[in-house]
Amino acid sequence: MRNLRIYSIDKKIPKKKLHYFVKLILEDLKLSLSSLELNFIKSDKIREINKQYLSHDYSTDIITFNYSNNKNRIDGEIFISVDDATENAAKYKVSYLEEIGRLIVHGVLHLIGFDDLTPGERKKMKNQENRLIKKYKFILLR
User: Fold this and answer.
1) Residue 142 — very low, low, confident or very high, per pLDDT cuts 50/70/90?
2) How far is it, in rounded angstroms, from Cα 12 to Cα 112?
3) pLDDT grade, residue 141 (50/70/90)?
């Protein structure tokens, strides 16, 4: 997929599978792609980004930056902490790659205007996450 770049410190990240996974997610949501970077980094790096840009001094599993004014056209960056993803996978009893997939979907949903600040918003976002993961996780797990 053109205009999708994946950078990872984790050699276990299957870039070809992620390209196909993102392609299917974008098609399902009827989105076009201007540019998207997926950055898989350590928790200390995501903490630095969180502190510098969001004034939060803690690690988090994902940070998303949206550069588009069009909700139907993706232009952004997604930073995923591989350390937090590993912890989440154990906590929720899912595979590491399924958790990576969920975080990617979560980031894409943020890029098109979904939010998770209120219980109602969180429920809508979680329903969409669950639908997409259930439908496409086979890409990551085969």
Assistant:
1) confident
2) 28
3) confident
Q: How many residues does the chain have?
A: 142
Bridge partners, 38 (sequence order): 6, 78
Angstrom distances, CA of residue 52 to CA of 33, 41, 47, 97: 27, 16, 9, 28
Q: Do 35 and 73 form a contact (C-beta atoms < 8 A)?
A: no
pLDDT at 126: 97
> What is the helix, strand, coil percentage profile of the chain, to 5?
55, 20, 25
- What pLDDT sits at residue 56? 94
Q: What is the CA radius of gyration of the chain?
A: 14
CB distance 59 to 44 below 8 Å:
yes
